[in-house]
Design a protein that fits this description.
The protein is α+β, with helices and mostly antiparallel strands. It is 57% helix and 20% strand. Helix 1 packs antiparallel against helix 2.
């Protein structure tokens, strides 16, 4: 009987140790799951930050490239009529067109059109023009087009907007 009592005590001790081990395993499983979730969230933050950094760097590079495109457009506006049809002028025109197409294919969006309404989020007014025939704030001239990339402003459109005046 004494042996059975000891065996019962031993059994109780083993059950207690098993319960403690199961509780410890459960605690460690919960901690491991929490660490896994935290790591997944960390990875998402790092990926988002990396993507944001890449977009910001692309915008900075585009901002450096846009004046070249502007210069090409101004140069074409100043081509003398007798040179407009020369093969050299047409070749340079094709290069400028290809640059614009490539930027568009990369996701660069051009904006700023005559007749649209001024929006301070997208336009920078360089000057105003009295135009009684147009609603106030209508864009009457685009001096330089604006550009955006991946939802970020690269450069606002520089415009001339209408203001009311005597008819």
């Amino acid at each position: 009987m004494k042996y059975l009592l000891r065996s019962g005590e031993k059994h109780a001790q083993l059950e207690q140790q098993l319960a403690e081990a199961q509780q410890l395993a459960e605690q460690r499983l919960v901690a491991l799951q929490r660490m896994h979730e935290e790591f997944a969230a960390y990875r998402r933050r790092v990926e988002a930050s990396s993507a944001e950094s890449a977009t910001a760097a692309s915008c900075e590079q585009l901002a450096l490239l846009l004046p070249v495109l502007d210069d090409l457009r101004r140069a074409f506006g100043a081509v003398p009529p007798e040179l407009a049809e020369s093969s050299w002028t047409q070749g340079i025109y094709l290069v400028a067109k290809r640059l614009g197409t490539t930027l568009n294919d990369l996701g660069v969006k051009r904006f700023g059109k005559v007749g649209t309404v001024f929006d301070p989020r997208f336009h920078e007014v360089l000057s105003t023009q009295v135009r009684p025939d147009l609603p106030e704030g209508t864009i009457v001239q685009v001096v330089l087009p604006g550009y955006s990339f991946a939802g970020r402003m690269v450069r606002p459109a520089q415009v001339i907007a209408s203001i009311p005046g005597p008819a």
